[in-house]
What we know:
Mean pLDDT: 90
Helix content: 25-40%
CATH class of the largest domain: Alpha Beta
Oligomer: single chain
CATH architecture of the largest domain: 3-Layer(aba) Sandwich
Amino acid sequence: MSTEMANTDPEGIDGVRMTWNAWPHTKVEASKCVIPIAASISPIRPHPHIPNNPYAPLRCKTCSAVLNPFCRVDFSALIWICPFCFQRNHFPHHYSGISETNVPAELYPQYTTIEYALAQDNNHALSQPVYVFVLDTCMIQEELRFAKLAVQQALEFLPENALVGFISFGTQVQVYELGYADISKVYVFQGSKEMSRDHVLDQLGLLGGGRRVGGGPAQGFQKGTGQGASGFHNSGAARFLLPASEGAYVIHSRLEELGIDQWPIAPGNRSLRCTGVALSVASGLLGACLPGTGARIVALVGGPCTEGHGSIVSQDLSDPVRSHKDLDKDAAAYFRNAVQFYEELSKQMVSQGHVLDLFASALDQVGVAEMKVLIERTGGLVVLSESFGHSVFKESFRRVFENGEESLGLAYNGILEMNCSKDIKIHGIIGPCSSLEKKGASVASTSVGQGNTTAWKLCGLDKDTCLTVLFDVSSSDKPDHSGNSNPQLYIQTLTSYQSVDGQSKLRATTISRRWIESSAVSEELLHGFDQETAAVVMARLTSYKMETEETFDATRWLDRNLIRLCSRFGDYRKDDPSSFALNSSFSLFPQFMFNLRRSPFVQVFNNSPDETAYFRMMLNRESITNATVMIQPSLISYSFNSLPSPTLLDVASISADRILLLDSYFHVVIFHGLTIAQWRNMGYQDQPEHQAFAQLLEAPREDAELIIKDRFPVPRLVVCDQHGSQARFLLAKLNPSASYNTEVGLGMDVIFTDDVNLQVFFEHLQRLAVQSS
């Protein structure tokens, strides 16, 4: 790999980044580091140099770790020693040809990550992707038209062998039997009634191996698809799930006939919408038809649930949907019951291996905050937008079903297992996964996120899925002088999963870092600090604590940790703030913390609980690079006299003759300075002698398109002018170095805020960090 690539790709072949790349050896030393020891891992991130082995891996007979470059090998005796449990394992017969000069790929030092193709089981017919579309009909005509159009387009993108099903809901849930193309056959469930899973399956005729098997539909399953397929066919499930080649046409015709929910709504009332029951019926249907296979429930929801399980608000329009204030005061009447309902449903879906993808498009809230547990535990996708006609929804929805380079690289039915050196314990994972409660020597006594386990279920994952693992150093505080201690520590992640084309794969990544013994701050410790990863881990931990600890004060906690960090790793004379300096490995970290304190992950004042839940779900699942942009947006300046260049995220960067491009992950803002906007309004860009101006206007647009093309969910593009109403999207993210209570120069933009600016924040930080107490 070229050094240039190594610089632009900090995750490298392993897809792993750590807060500390040199680890203190004792608990006490680890706690002095302030920032927790954590790793961000991208289980199936693609990389051109990962080798693919067409056979199953060799595993250690004691701890099940996979053969890797850090194993000690005795070539004459054909034995390898596991670096995790020191077990001596014999190579099997087909490895008998190996020698010092002829080693298998697993032992090459550069192949710390390797992928294995696992043998297919005979349920081959069921390894195709499965999609059940669940469509809300309590919407205005226009919105429903956009939503139906999106589903019809998605069906055209699906591979022919994918299975599709269709459910619509309003006040009641309609499950469509697709096996009969000529007659429209629908099963209706009451949205207000409590229904057990068995009751649903009994109504659908799926209980007890499917007594009522419809005749004739879905012949495609029986041809040469092995035992699993005919089992599927006889279960009666083929009445509800058809291969896309046939099902797309049937669903198309059902969508044509589908109108908005006809249930009468009294004046001053909300629509009766039974979202929770619809998802529960969809989950039951998939659980009966295809347990243990990769299947997705794709829900398009256009408003709050007001009927049955999962309700978030009453029908009465005078009752507002719960706000952050209500949640803080425990005054949100429906919240706890809804969360509990979705938590139960998540257990059912995780045990079935199924995923919920939520596309919520409404001007009001729809209950993302309540559904968060279900989306995160199943590893589903979530997109929040204002309308089904908005580009944020339309482009994002299309990308889920697209093929090729643009696609998300969706995968199914993943299981992640971890092995660690003996002094390392795992607190847990923050991110889209679910604990499999697998106990072992590496489980820490306290748990964070999905903890108490060394294995996790990833029902749905994609090439960008990134999880944060928090570690505990458990070694005794006495250094080992016996000479046996290894200065290296090892961690191995094993991810087995199913790719969209039905291939079963296992990816093994083994990484090594160094233990450091000394209690003094060493160069190795300083240079091993990854400030971007540390900022993201602190952001994820803060969000987690805000949701799980009732009296948690996020800003104070972040400030205290930052002061401790600067006090421990800064260079200064006691009680002399002017002497304070930070090593370059730490120099950006205070700025990240300043922006994190102001970010929507910590400041919930201006957002609804749905928006906050959405932002946090995205923060918890995206790569370090993407999550860093969410915390601290990037700003690029375009002007006549210089090339496009990054500029300070500060109000001072605004200038009349500049264009600014802000990327805050969820929004991409193109901001025209006053003069530029006036020239553009006069049409100078259309005159042949002003070619340079036309190019200046075009450059940020092209760059914005590049950002949007690679991102999911697709960000909202805001094009605005200085002093225009939309300029708030930029101003809200800038450091208020000029606000109404500071002196400003003529013509400079002012931000009306009481927030401290970065300069004042730094001064306080220096003063507190150098205090002798």
